[in-house]
Design a protein that fits this description.
- The structure is a single chain.
- The protein has four helices and four strands.
- 34% of the residues lie in helices and 28% in strands.
- The relative contact order is 0.19.
- The protein has one domain (2-96): Sufe protein. Chain: A, CATH 3.90.1010.
- The chain is an alpha+beta fold.
Length: 105
Amino acid sequence: MTTKVLADTPVCGHKTYITAELVGDVVKIKIETTCEEVEAIAKELGELRMEELATWDNRVFQLARKLTPTCIVPSAIMNAAWIEAGLMSRYLALEKKEQKIVFLE
């Protein structure tokens, strides 16, 4: 099974599609994006080991240092990986459909 997530970021005008697939004890990550910066880190990422999913000190967040701090793509990658690894409810995520940042003023 695979998990597919869209990081839709209208503030910067980019869309990033993330596919996570659990293969053995790694989560393989595939990223399609309109953002050149995200594309660059996607080439370096590839897959995550299960133990990387339980820490802030993992390659997703290390590579995220190359992006603007406001980029939601690293969080979207981690959410996809967590769902695929069974660490986050697939049912609940698909039922709720989205997590939001809402700018109020």
